[in-house]
Write a structure and sequence with these properties.
Length: 200
Amino acid sequence: MPSKPSLILASSSRYRKELLSRLRLPFTAISPDVDETPQSGETPEALALRLSVAKAMAVVSTNPGSIVIGSDQVATVDGTPIGKPGDFTRAQAQLRSLSGRMVEFHSALAVTDGHRVEKADIITRCRFRQLPDHAIDAYLRAEEPYDTAGSAKAESLGIALMESIQSDDPTAIIGLPLIELTRMLATFGLDPLDTPGAPA
């Protein structure tokens, strides 16, 4: 029986690594070298999809014969992208502006073997609570979400900032849509349920 191709996550994100480990498929993680600058006139959806494909292709080019997963997430308000704050002051301003508003997270995903590419954009809609300044400050000091678009980590205390979350995939908001990923991997011969109990 031929051996299965190696699986690589094109990411340095510990959140994506933790999510992928849920599927119990052996994998390695390699950080891709990709310029993430948006192109002129590029929509948030197009940006997220382009970067997810670019990350996967960058890694598969140096790891031929592997199956590579690329992913990227862009958060938007009224169609305008919002980035990672980087520090307390910017995160504070960001959460003040998001208070009571709906934020769309485009969690794009790409899987490739170097020849064929499967890709998708999973949208999560998060409505933020009305957030008083003391709640924003308490959250930021507790979690320091400065590397997260929208300044909110929904996988931990950031869930307390939300009034509602709507998505077809509860893992998409964290950065790796596992329902869609499982479907994609199966088309490349890597169905997690074909090898139950495999170490991650």
